[in-house]
């Protein structure tokens, strides 16, 4: 053998278990088909999703995804108003104080984010793509009912897999302002007033007591803003910047972005003067 | 003798408790700070497993393109695979388009790539730092399943809870009455990064040994190795 290598003679080496030298590029399914996500390599994957997350000692591993928190939307005579906070928490850690929880699907359609941040942004983005394709194919804008149905059907495939998403799809179409609530359990319902997230209970209290159909635009913005502010004040998982958007005939408009801290001091002064 | 012919093989029966875990926590912390024409990204060089130190000089910042770098920590096995897959896709892009992939495109691709594994996630904490098409520094922060946020500065990894508040205070002067954020220069960024890691190393066992600070500018990139406590 040494003689062979000295003379540069190459012996034929049979490769048992022929291994490809060039490893194939790993397939990332959702580049081509956004609806397709990788299933974990486990039998009965849908029952076990989440169960295998244990570390080497058998303790459950804290895989904390960013979670979104208080959003609200309501219809009134001047269109629809959406108001959101901007805090994202991963477990007890505040991952971000400035998340954009209103996702701009198109110039006349908005989606909100509550629950898992990655889930909401990903599926809202896929929805934006589908809405645009609808527009190109049908040469007219998609209705809010149809857009929300698309989203609901997308996530229904993954019902039970642990997606966490509570989204409001709001926009302007032929029927006027539209507001639908869609979540990862498969719910989809139209409505006039919704609030979603851990702080929604607090927001509902303020929203329900101040809501009237024939509010002026300014009253509507202030109602949404106050409701979110009160939720940020009492719910630990809500906070940051309070953003208000208005949906009307020409599309959506960004109304205000105020820090809930500043709102707190402004309202505190306001409270004493009205008494 | 009971006849078991109708019984399924054990791997097809109901899930059982098992102690194999595909994940491991290997520690590591990263910081990135962006300026008007530069971006600085740094990572510590310690790799741990429980109370053991696996390595004192593990580079954790990956150079993706001439103007983008990524710092990853968490489960080292996942970091290696994610880096490889990402690098492959970036190379493919440069072959198809005859130019290197812009930072914003890399950022979005990474987000989609992480979401692909939504049900069996990459247990990785990522920060992407680079220069955008206008040459301005930009930092992207990710959660393990791909939620992406564009920022001017960020920390991630084991000591994120110790470092992020320090950066919020010093870089953005957040929630401070009457304070204005300083103009971000390379010297200030480097000093902040160094100080942040020193403080984190004092209070977190998973951080220490050393840091490697990378700076990306239009002209190119530079690298600096700084020693930290090895205890």
From TrEMBL, chain A:
* Active site residues per record: 69 (nucleophile)
Cellular localisation: Cytoplasm; Nucleus
Q: Does the keyword Protease apply?
A: yes
Q: Name one Pfam family in it.
A: Proteasome
> GO molecular function: any one?
threonine-type endopeptidase activity
Which reaction is this enzyme known to catalyze? Cleavage of peptide bonds with very broad specificity
InterPro entries cross-referenced by the UniProt entry = Ntn_hydrolases_N, Pept_T1A_subB, Proteasome_bsu_CS, Proteasome_sua/b, Proteasome_suB-type
Question: What are its GO cellular component terms?
Answer: cytoplasm; nucleus; proteasome core complex
Coarse class of the primary localization is: cytoplasm
Q: Which UniProt keywords apply?
A: Cytoplasm, Hydrolase, Nucleus, Protease, Proteasome, Threonine protease, Zymogen
Q: Which GO terms describe its biological process?
A: proteolysis involved in protein catabolic process
Assembly and partners are described as: Component of the proteasome complex. The 26S proteasome consists of a 20S proteasome core and two 19S regulatory subunits. The 20S proteasome core is composed of 28 subunits that are arranged in four stacked rings, resulting in a barrel-shaped structure. The two end rings are each formed by seven alpha subunits, and the two central rings are each formed by seven beta subunits. The catalytic chamber with the active sites is on the inside of the barrel.
Q: Which family does it belong to?
A: Belongs to the peptidase T1B family.
Task performed by this protein: Non-catalytic component of the proteasome, a multicatalytic proteinase complex which is characterized by its ability to cleave peptides with Arg, Phe, Tyr, Leu, and Glu adjacent to the leaving group at neutral or slightly basic pH. The proteasome has an ATP-dependent proteolytic activity. Component of the proteasome, a multicatalytic proteinase complex which is characterized by its ability to cleave peptides with Arg, Phe, Tyr, Leu, and Glu adjacent to the leaving group at neutral or slightly basic pH. The proteasome has an ATP-dependent proteolytic activity.
Q: Which protein are we looking at? A: Proteasome subunit beta
Source species of the chain: Scylla paramamosain
Taxonomy, top ranks, is: Eukaryota, Metazoa, Ecdysozoa, Arthropoda, Crustacea
